[in-house]
Amino acid sequence: PMTSLMLIDIMDYFCSLLTELVVIVLDNAPIHVSKIHVSKKLKKRMEYWEKRSLTLYFLLRYAPELNLIEVIWRKMKYE
Predict the structure, then answer these.
(1) CB 48 within 8 A of CB 56
(2) What is the pLDDT of residue 42?
(3) Is residue 37 a contact partner of residue 4, using CB atoms and an 8 Å limit?
(4) Backbone angles phi and psi of 53, in degrees to 5
(5) What percent of the chain has pLDDT over 70?
């Protein structure tokens, strides 16, 4: 399972490759973030990344209309 330390390593590497501003939108659904909780280490690292042009943006806890895959799944389910 993914941990916050693994996410930090991945994002550190990704950040080292950036040449322009990047925003990563993360689904904040409880089923997804239970494995990667926003730990103190992750929050601190997010400040570091933002200074280097990488921003993590967490969607609201329940906002399926903001998550494209949820819109697609709903369409597939009912059509």
Answers:
(1) no
(2) 81
(3) yes
(4) 75, 20
(5) 75
Tokens of 74: 């709903």
pLDDT tens, position by position, 11-48: 999 999 999 999 998 776 555 555 556 677 888 898 99
Spatial contact of 8 and 47, defined as CB atoms under 8 Å apart: no
- State the average pLDDT over residues 43-64: 84
**Token reading at 68:** 């494209």
Spell out the residues 6+ positions from residue 56 whose beta carbon is closer than 8 angstroms to its own.
11, 23, 24, 26, 46, 49
Contacts of 37-40 with C-beta under 8 Å, sequence gap 24+, read 37/4, 38/4, 39/4
